[in-house]
Amino acid sequence: MTKFERNILAKEPIIWTGDLDDDCTARWAGLMLRSEWMDDNWWWWAVYDMQKGETTIDDSNEYDNSFIGGEAARTKAEEVAKKYIEIILHTDEV
Predict the structure, then answer these.
(1) How crowded is residue 77: how many other Cβ atoms within 10 Å of its Cβ?
(2) Most buried among 46, 59, 68, 82, using CB within 10 Å?
(3) Which of 36, 18, 39 is nearest to 27 (CA)?
C-alpha cells in the first residue's frame, strides 16, 4: 500500500466489527485495531501496521492505567492509529 493510498483510506471513518461488548476489530488505512474485554471492566487494545508485517504500533500492555469499558479501549486505539498515520504521511517512509 502506498502513502497515497493510506492517505485516501485515512479519510474514511474507523468502523469496528464483531461484538463491541466482547471482542472487536477495525481495519483502517492499512492498520488493524483490536479491542477485547479481559476481566471485570478492564479491556485490552492494540494497533498493528498490517503493511509492515503486522508490527505492533502500541497496545494497552504499555500503559500503567487500565482501560475500563470497550468504548475507552476503542477510543484509545483510534487515537493511536490516527497519530501513527499522521506520522507515516509526513515522513519519507512508504
Answers:
(1) 30
(2) 46
(3) 18
Q: How many CB atoms lie within 10 A of CB 31?
A: 26
Task: Provide the residue ranges of all domains of the chain, joining segments of one domain with +.
Answer: 3-89
Q: Where are the alpha helices (DSSP H) in 23-69?
A: none
12 residue type, one letter? E
Tens digits of residue pLDDT in 29-88:
999 999 999 988 899 999 999 999 999 999 999 999 999 999 999 999 999 999 999 999
Read off the C-alpha cell for 46: 492494540
Name every residue whose Cβ is closer than 8 Å to that of residue 46 and which is 6 or more positions away in sequence.
Answer: 33, 34, 56, 57, 58, 59, 60, 77
- Per the CB < 8 A criterion, the answer to whether 55 and 44 are in contact is no
Query: Which three cell numbers, joined as nine digits, stand for 11?
Result: 479519510
